[in-house]
Amino acid sequence: MESLYLLIPLSVVLVFLIGVVFWWSVRSGQFDDLEGPGYRVVVDDDSPPKAKSQVKDDEGVGQG
């Protein structure tokens, strides 16, 4: 029974802290764009990778 005197206020404080953190995240814009970062990962690479023959040709430029 004595443990309830500690656990109930501790749980109330924990719920309050979780609410404050959630409120801060909503106010700071953490949930504004949920799908945008996923699309940016897919579309991020604008330049295609060089083929191995192009890399060898580029290494030989300037030597001679």
Which descriptors would you attach to this protein?
single chain, 64 residues, mainly alpha, 3 helices, 67% helix
Give the number of DSSP strands.
Answer: 0
- Summing up helix and strand content along with how strands pair, one would put the structural category as mainly alpha
Morphology call: elongated
Strand content: under 5%
Nearest-integer average pLDDT? 81
Largest sheet: none
What is the number of helices? Answer: 3
Rounded to an integer, what's the Rg over CA atoms?
Answer: 28 Å
Order of SSEs: HHH
DSSP helix fraction: 55-70%
Distance between the termini: 88 Å
* Model regions low in confidence, pLDDT < 50 over at least 5 residues: none
Summary?
This protein is mainly alpha-helical and 64 residues long.
Task: Give an account of the 3D structure.
The protein is mainly alpha-helical and 64 residues long. The protein is built from 3 helices and no strands. The chain has helices at residues 2-27, 36-43, 52-60. The mean pLDDT is 81.
Please render the helix and strand layout as text.
Layout: H1 2-27, H2 36-43, H3 52-60
